[in-house]
């Protein structure tokens, strides 16, 4: 498996990568391997900091920070249960355990993923799954601004999950935001609740005329948060199509138009693989 032959690469892909074997699992499955403990410690990668989008507004939640994360836990082909390091550690933390405060080491990293300076600027937010996290904070802040008597621009959210009754995060909060006017548009795609899969990019296409109006006439800011491998790419391609159709442009001109939005800070990404 350590050689560069095609057979060895295929074996490594099957036995290690696809089977999700970590170093501990490899040592358990091959007991003849007995590396010196100091050598093993040198090879083990250092744990990286985990970054989570803040799912609250400091204007509304001045003394706390909220996060939205999936607890990672799945069974591999070998029958082992792999657990996410940070999410499972957080899951087992309790505010007051045995009369003692439970502490979590953390720091806040400054982000460029923030609302426009002008409250009247429209925003389109696209965040399936836990990608909704920063937008909860955005909507909270816009609701707070409205309460202060400020004029607030259109605030439109495109959210997606598999099943409405199983993983529709912040369902009640979003309904309340919509009722109060902090959220002016809510479009939700439930990908598995019908025969044909529906994703956020399909809802963008369905509302393409209004999307173009907000981009072209409203100078809106677009935010995309979530999966980088499929969702972010598909959403970006959808914007190319909308710009090409309503802006009367060819494919390359539409691509350049969207890239210019990115350069100007009007199309922001917070994505992960």
């Amino acid at each position: 498996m350590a050689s560069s032959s095609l057979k060895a690469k295929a074996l490594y892909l099957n036995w290690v990568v696809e089977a999700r074997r970590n170093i501990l699992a490899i040592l358990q499955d091959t007991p003849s391997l007995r590396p010196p403990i100091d050598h093993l410690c040198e090879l083990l990668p250092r744990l990286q900091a985990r970054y989570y989008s803040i799912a609250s507004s400091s204007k509304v939640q001045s003394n706390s920070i909220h996060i939205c994360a999936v607890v990672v836990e799945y069974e591999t082909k070998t029958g082992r249960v792999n657990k996410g390091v940070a999410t499972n550690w957080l899951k087992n933390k309790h505010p007051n355990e045995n009369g003692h405060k439970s502490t979590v080491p953390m720091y806040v990293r400054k982000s460029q993923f923030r609302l426009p300076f002008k409250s009247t600027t429209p925003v389109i937010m696209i965040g399936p799954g836990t990608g909704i996290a920063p937008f909860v904070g955005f909507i909270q802040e816009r609701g707070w601004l409205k309460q202060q008597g400020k004029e607030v621009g259109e605030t439109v959210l495109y959210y997606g999950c598999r099943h409405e009754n199983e993983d529709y995060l912040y369902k009640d909060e979003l309904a309340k935001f919509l009722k109060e006017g902090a959220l002016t548009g809510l479009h939700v795609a439930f990908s598995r609740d019908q025969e044909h899969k529906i994703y956020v990019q399909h809802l963008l296409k369905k509302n393409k005329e209004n999307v173009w109006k907000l981009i072209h006439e409203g100078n809106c800011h677009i935010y995309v948060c979530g999966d980088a491998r499929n969702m972010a790419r598909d959403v970006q391609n959808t914007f190319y199509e909308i710009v090409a159709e309503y802006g009367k442009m060819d494919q390359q001109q539409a691509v350049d138009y969207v890239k210019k939005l990115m350069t100007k800070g009007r199309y922001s990404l917070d994505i992960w693989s």
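The domain at 123-272 is CATH 3.40.50.80 (Rossmann fold). The longest helix spans residues 231-246.
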